[in-house]
Design brief:
Layout: H1 2-24, H2 29-59, H3 62-71, H4 75-89, H5 97-118, E1 128-129, E2 132-133, H6 139-162, H7 170-197, H8 201-230
Antiparallel strand pairs: 1-2
Length: 231
Amino acid sequence: MLGDIFNQFLYQPIFDFFVFLYNIFGHNIGLAIIVLTLIIRIILFPISQKSIKAQMRMTGYRKQIKEIQQKFKTKEEQSRELMKFYKENKINPFSGCLPLLIQLPILIALYRVFITALNSKDGLINPIFLGLNLSKSNPIMAILAGIAQFFASQMTIKRSAMMPQPGASDKAMEKQRAMTKQMNYFFPILTVIIAWRWPAGLPFYWIISTILGLAQDYYLYKKYGRDQKHD
């Protein structure tokens, strides 16, 4: 039943729209991928904007959160006082999870759309873009996807450094920062390994999506970071 709902409301509409874009842009699969990625980013923009705005607002309370951590030593006391503090100041500490939860089924649907389109045997989709066959694996695309992921990981490190970590000791925070730095290299390498086996259209989508995501995050963090300084 869940599979039918997924196919009916996500996979099939996205696939049909992708074929529509492919036809509109003169059977150019590269342009169809770029435009589809851009449209999905635009649709999800309000959610990302709300999430980042809430995160940046939370940074303005870093001093108060630190004081609560120093005043209350046990995790239970810290959690109780922090939840009380969040409620009084109308802060949602889990706001950053919402975009991920919403994007995950969309990413799964997109994966299936591109796999189906790129492996089409009936000639419905021409996989050639700028001389590259996007239905075949391509090392250059895999490496570029890894590079894009590296810059995305760098943004994540900066973001985690800005965000206060409620309920965590200084030692735990230092350990978490060290692990985050390790992930900065692990995820790009993992991306290259996975993308190396995928049809080139999938890492191409990942490159475009990551670049658009970086531009979006840069704009939003700069905007709400500037607003935060004025508060």
